[in-house]
Amino acid sequence: MAFDFDGVFASRPVILAPMEAVTDAAFRKVCRAHGADLCVTEFVRAENLVNQCRREQTKITLGPGDAPTAIQIYGSDEEHLAEAAEIAERAEPAYLDINCGCWVPKIARGGAGAGWLRSPDAMVAMAKMIVSRVALPVTVKTRVGWGTEESMPIVDLARRLEDAGVRALTIHCRTAKMGYSGDADWSWAQKAREVVSIPVIVNGDIRTANECKRALDQTGCAGAMIGRRAIEHPWIFREARSRLDRKGHVPPPTELERIALCCEHLQAMADDRGPGRAVRAMRQHYPGYLRQVPNGADLVRELNAIPSLDDTLSVLRQELAERSTCVTPVALA
Ligand SMILES: Cc1cc2nc3c(=O)[nH]c(=O)nc-3n(C[C@H](O)[C@H](O)[C@H](O)COP(=O)(O)O)c2cc1C
User: Fold this and answer.
1) Which of the following is catalytic: 31, 39, 100, 102?
2) pLDDT per position as a tens digit, 237-264
3) What pTM does this model have?
4) Neighbours of 27 (CB within 10 A)
5) Angle, to 10 degrees, between the axis of helix 120-133 and the axis of helix 154-163?
6) More confident position, 300 or 329
7) CATH among 2.70.98, 1.10.1200, 3.30.360, 1.10.3470 for 255-324
8) Does the Cβ of 113 fall within 6 Å of ligand 1?
9) Burial class (CB in 10 A: 0-12, 13-18, 19+), 274
């Protein structure tokens, strides 16, 4: 079924952010099961997709049930980006997102990601070209500016990107130069939102359901995007959704739910990426998933030291069995 772009953005979606080496199919499944309204893939390098690299092809493969998911592409060459957009479109994502916000020097210095913010004219021309080459909605994710401008370009850029045919704009409310330092200033999302009629999605430092509501209320944005908090607490999506829909406080995940999620996520990742990579990649999630679990730090240490999938699963299942006989309530901070 075709993605109802306008309908979804009219319902204040809470969106899983694109995150390289995190937002793979297994993690999208986890976040969707916990209430994410929309997901975006890890960024996909345009040149590699055009050159048929296997890793990039895997990144754009959306399996059954992996919807709505947008595919994000990045690159510094507009023709490569346009070709990549045509290829990604065939994977039938909800829409295509162009990364104009990655600040990492090896990407931004070469002109990709936030590098586009150094030449707004070129960014707008590139977006216009991509819009002309695909039928799917095209969106842009960017930051408020490069970081040395006298006034941030995001407001003018928002207007110009809308004129270029971009259908929505996600704003990580920091400059590229800030990286992750300082605080995200959501007022930039509000200022941009005020001058366009396309949906603007506010992003940066949303860590709780209350913060999600505040970000949307303060900015009037159409949706909110959550990145780092989801890595440790994917329950944020159902908590935020419930808060936005005035459905009341969602009880925090129990000790058993937390351990069960480790099993499910690990298994889903192993199915997709193989056992070795799954065991290693899960290590970024254990500290958050198990933070509120009694003796969780010991369990994290134990899991991090186990090299095999089967042994990891058996430790987790044993923990589940032992703890299900003496469950204690878990209080979230
Ligand atoms: C590990 C990691 C990988 C990221 N990869 C991407 C990416 O591929 N594309 C992108 O647009 N942003 C990427 N980001 C930035 C996030 O999408 C988001 O804009 C940023 O983390 C701010 O949101 P947050 O405060 O909710 O984390 C990444 C962030 C992290 C932490």
Assistant:
1) 102
2) 999 999 999 998 899 999 999 999 999 9
3) 0.96
4) 25
5) 30
6) 300
7) 1.10.1200
8) no
9) exposed
